[in-house]
Design goal:
Elements: H1 18-21, H2 24-34, E1 37-40, E2 49-52, H3 55-61, E3 67-68, H4 75-80, H5 98-107, H6 111-132, E4 138-139, H7 140-145, H8 147-157, H9 164-175, H10 184-207, H11 213-218, E5 221-222, E6 225-226, H12 229-260, H13 262-269, H14 275-286, E7 292-296, E8 300-302, E9 305-307, E10 312-315, H15 317-320, H16 355-372, E11 373-378, E12 383-384, E13 393-395, E14 397-402
Parallel strand pairs: 2-10
Antiparallel strand pairs: 1-2, 3-7, 4-14, 5-6, 7-10, 8-9, 11-14, 12-13
Length: 403
């Protein structure tokens, strides 16, 4: 049964149920056509905010100096007030502090480190896919998608293996849940647990540095001083947050889309389309982060609409990635799509630091599927993520047949 299109009067973009129970893409299509920039009215729990839906408006706003990330870059956080990590965590830091902090973070990803990590991703993914081929049924999310991104980031940070399952669970709870009864307090508690964990680990590495990324960050000065333990912790948290959840849900979406579009799976297997091209379409199609939030720090116009200083502005990349003026037939999953200038990693100064790793993980997954799997079959309904930020599924029962 088809889901109902969202009506403007029933719309609540702050409610995770909105994105589970309705035809979201039908709604965004209507918004792009009729109200591409509009004010989302306040709810009982949250203030109002601006919604921006068109690619042509969103892409330049990622570069705008009239918008700040320091109060937060996710709707739930910015609606509650200032992000406690503002000015300390790269993702929620504005110029002039942003560039030197980004340079420090990026300096940790040397060609040698990235080369080793990509090879680890390839080996781990191939091993995981090989292990599930011919099982009668398994949950792709739990057996593969959950395992690759979290272990990739934890390898970079040299997080002890025994601590990783708990970090994964905290990270899932921090941004989303598959339970409608999960509360904001659950998410806040999970975020606090992750930060506290990395504060302790950062202090250990500062006292006894090794060859890992945390040790390098802990012993390198930015603008004449070392990062505090708190700053180290929130930036490690940022790497976990950005490097795990979005890659995980993209991988789940990739497998589901390939099952639902067998002609595309056939084209990938036979080499009619490259893995690199397929990765970009998976990222566009999945749009794992539905929006990014900003706060206006001065008055400006968007498409003739006046935005006032202090207003919250939400940039809906899930809508931009399906904008008919940019992508032909956007609700068709087309692995050969070119050009494919999606905004799944954002754009501009805050372009995702982990984009290279995200692409590498999807590349390794699709390559392993092509090498090891002949046929994929869905064995049950996927369980959706309960979130107003992440787009995708928490569980996907499948069967893989050997090639």
């Amino acid at each position: 049964m088809s889901q109902p299109a969202l009506g403007e009067r029933s719309l609540d973009l702050t409610d995770p149920a909105t994105f589970v129970d309705n035809d979201v893409h039908g709604f965004w299509r209507e918004v792009r056509a009729q109200r591409p920039v509009h004010w989302h009215e306040a709810t009982d729990r949250h203030p109002g905010f601006w919604v921006v839906a068109r690619y042509s408006d969103i892409q330049p706003l990622f570069h705008s100096e009239a918008l700040s990330s320091a109060r937060g870059n996710v709707l739930d956080v910015v609606l509650r007030g200032d992000d406690s990590a503002g000015g300390s965590m790269l993702a929620v830091t504005d110029p002039p502090r942003h560039r030197p902090l980004r340079n420090l973070m990026w300096s940790a990803f040397t060609p040698r480190v990235l080369g080793e990590v990509v090879e680890q991703i390839r080996q781990r993914t191939d091993r995981l896919v090989s292990a599930v081929v011919e099982l009668d049924e398994f949950d792709f999310a739990a057996e593969i998608a959950d395992q690759v991104p979290i272990n990739t980031i934890c390898d970079l940070l040299s997080v002890p293996v025994e601590d990783r399952p708990e970090l994964l669970q905290w990270n899932k709870m921090a941004l989303s849940s598959d339970r409608a009864d999960s509360s904001e307090l659950d998410a806040i508690s999970a975020r606090n647990e992750i930060v506290l964990y990395f504060m302790e680990l950062a202090q250990e590495r500062r006292d006894d540095p090794g060859e890992d990324v945390i040790s390098m960050l802990a012993t390198t000065e930015v603008e004449g001083r070392l990062l505090t333990v708190e700053e180290l912790a929130v930036n490690c948290y940022s790497l976990i947050l950005g490097g795990d959840e979005t890659s995980r849900v993209s991988a789940i979406c990739a497998v589901l889309a390939l099952i639902e579009n067998p002609e595309q799976w056939r084209a990938l297997r036979t080499g009619e389309v490259s893995v690199e091209s397929a990765v970009e379409e998976v990222l566009r199609w999945s749009s794992p982060a539905m929006h990014l939030a900003r706060t206006a720090i001065r008055d400006f116009d968007v498409d003739g609409t006046k935005v006032r200083s202090g207003d919250i502005v939400t940039l809906w990349t899930i809508s931009a990635n399906n904008d008919e003026t940019v992508f032909e037939d956007p609700r068709r999953f087309t692995l050969s799509r070119s050009p494919n200038k999606h905004l799944s990693f954002g754009h501009g100064p805050h372009y995702c630091l982990g984009a290279f790793l995200g692409r590498s993980e999807l590349n390794a997954l699709l390559s392993a599927l092509v090498a090891r799997v002949g046929r994929m079959e869905q064995r049950g309904a996927p369980r959706p993520i309960f979130s107003n930020f992440l787009n995708g599924y928490e569980s996907l029962p499948v069967h893989f047949e050997s090639r």
